[in-house]
Amino acid sequence: PEGVCKELQSVFCDILSASSTVQIRKFLSSFGTNSYYMSIQDQDAHEFIITLFDKLDKELGKDFEKDRNEIFGVHSVYTIKSKDAKSESKEFSNEIDLPIKKFKSITESLDHLIEEESINQWDTGSEHGKQDAKRSLRYTKLPPFLIFNLKRYDFDEDKQYSRELRSRFECPENLDMKPYCVEDIDCETKYKIVSVIAHKGNPQTGHYI
Questions:
Q1: Which of 73, 32, 38 is nearest to 55 (CA)?
Q2: Cα–Cα distance for residue pair 30/14, rounded to 1 Å
Q3: If pLDDT is split at 50, 70 and 90, which confidence band does 189 have?
Q4: 173-183 burial, b if ≥16 CB within 10 A, otherwise e?
């Protein structure tokens, strides 16, 4: 049918047969606005892919949404453990948000994410009362295609404005996620990089390439 899905298919077909730059005005217009407005809209790459997924979900329905979550879905669990109690909280997302401030690579950021965090006087309930505990994150299921969202924007409290962190950040060509997962994970954990989206400009304007 007419819509985002049809125009996205056309873009893929054009890319396969193109000998020069592919025009995507019809694809942008299929979002319900004109291409000029889309090009100047204050939206980062992460916000755009969420919008795209939302449009495709609405056009193609629950079956597509289920398949999309299989292709990109990241399952994780937060565990809080004290001397006498334990609590688990499961989460789901289509990407992994990586802090990059003070870190030099994907592996350093991931090491930080799974680092145990101390919790003082965690309330375990009436049986054991408040106890000191440890909180940790692990991934329980990973998708065929793994999206990392690098958090390159930082708010300067002193100057009261957003800035883009331009420090070097290394993305290895090959990555094994097993050290960041639960011990009994039953899925592929090895990845090879296939795409990088980079920003050129400043936090207020620019282009993604």
A1: 32
A2: 16
A3: very high
A4: eebebeebbee
In a 3-state reduction of DSSP, which class is residue 123? strand
Give the pair of three-digit tokens for residue 209. Answer: 């390439």
Q: How much is the pTM?
A: 0.86
Run of H or E residues at 156: strand 153-156
The CA–CA distances, whole Å, from 206 to 40, 64, 163, 167, 168 equal: 9, 32, 13, 18, 19
Count CB-CB contacts under 10 A for residue 22. Answer: 14
Top-confidence residue, 164 or 142: 142
Read off the pLDDT of residues 104-119 as tens digits, 9 standing for 90 and up.
999 999 999 999 999 9
β-pair partners for 96:
148
CA distances from 41 to 23, 45, 106, 154, 207 (A): 18, 11, 29, 20, 11
Specify the pLDDT at position 6.
94
What's the rounded Cα separation, in Å, for the pair 122 and 80?
9
DSSP lists the bridge partners of residue 162 as: 155
